[in-house]
Amino acid sequence: MMRSLYSAISGLKNHQIKMDVIGNNIANVNTTGFKRSRVSFGTMLSQTVKGASTPDTATPATYGGTNPTQIGLGATLGSIDQIMSQGSAQSTGKNTDLMIQGSGFFLLKNSGNTVYTRAGGFGFDSDGNMVDPATGALVQGYIYDASQADATWSPGPVTLGNIKFKLGDPSLVTPTSLLTSYSIDQNGIITGVYTDPSTGASSTNKIAQIPVANFANDSGLQNIGSNFYTQTNNSGTASIGAAGTDGRGTLIPGALEMSNVDLSQEFTDMIVTQRGFQANSRVITVSDTLLQELIDLKRQ
């Protein structure tokens, strides 16, 4: 009976953890780029009352084998997995809002540390740095210089650094022309439209390209808050390159990826978890009743 008490206690603890995870999922139902988590349970070690025996090897056999007799000692927390499925798209119309359609993460620098995110609601600071407005983390990209601004992008000669530009900046190719507008395409290339104030002539030059980082195991990334992830020993090393290449997702400008939390799934899991918690509570109640019967035997 004492085993049943401790087994039920382990069940209560595990279902409480599952409820905590479900609560976090529901709390982030409207968090941009959020990925839901899932709890799985595992069995604890079992107490072996009687081991297995082998059958008689004689012909004909005079007895058969027997199975082991074991008593389970409860449940343990198996894992809490991050489900990295695609979230739905929400159109915003803002040209610095970006969504990754497919696998991959944006690359940012936060206080000098490299972080990754699926939340692409970017903006600019007063110095023209492209940033995550909530944290000030700097969006990283491949920066063109004057000799490459009109060339086809390749990862070799282009520098990976902070994306920085603002309206009124001079053109890399024609310094007399000033940046009047810009656009971002599905490959992450930021193209500026430059106009010469004296002649009114317009030209386009590439400014930078926003890359996408892929991992062998996305679920192995560590969630550090603020929609950021960091690399771990089990996530693999980031493979950074252009969007739409080598299995990386493409970018959708003017849109954001919403949370992949499905409320119908979460509410169903909540009911199942509640019932599991109640069932384990009942085991404790019944075990306590049986122990009370033993105590009452002494009184009689």
- Measured between the Cα atoms of the first and last residue, the distance is 21 Å
Number of strands: 21
Report the mean per-residue pLDDT as an integer: 91
Going by helix content, strand content and strand pairing, the class is alpha+beta
Describe this protein with a few key phrases.
300 residues; alpha+beta; two-stranded antiparallel sheet; 21% helix; 32% strand; elongated
Write a structural description.
By secondary structure, the chain is of the alpha+beta class. Strand 9 and strand 10 (130-131) form a beta hairpin. It folds into 2 domains: 2-45 and 69-84 and 262-299, no CATH class; 89-163 and 210-257, no CATH class. The protein is built from 2 helices and 21 strands. The strands form 8 sheets. Strands 7, 8, 11, 12, 13, 14 and 15 form a 7-stranded antiparallel beta sheet that branches. Strands 1-4 form a two-stranded antiparallel ribbon. Strands 2-3 form a two-stranded antiparallel sheet.
Topology:
Elements: H1 2-27, E1 37-43, E2 46-50, E3 69-72, E4 75-82, E5 89-91, E6 98-101, E7 106-110, E8 113-117, E9 123-124, E10 130-131, E11 138-143, E12 159-162, E13 178-184, E14 189-195, E15 202-209, E16 212-214, E17 222-225, E18 228-230, E19 239-241, E20 250-253, E21 255-257, H2 263-299
Antiparallel strand pairs: 1-4, 2-3, 5-21, 6-20, 7-8, 7-11, 9-10, 11-12, 11-15, 13-14, 14-15, 16-19, 17-18
Concise description?
By secondary structure, the protein is of the alpha+beta class.
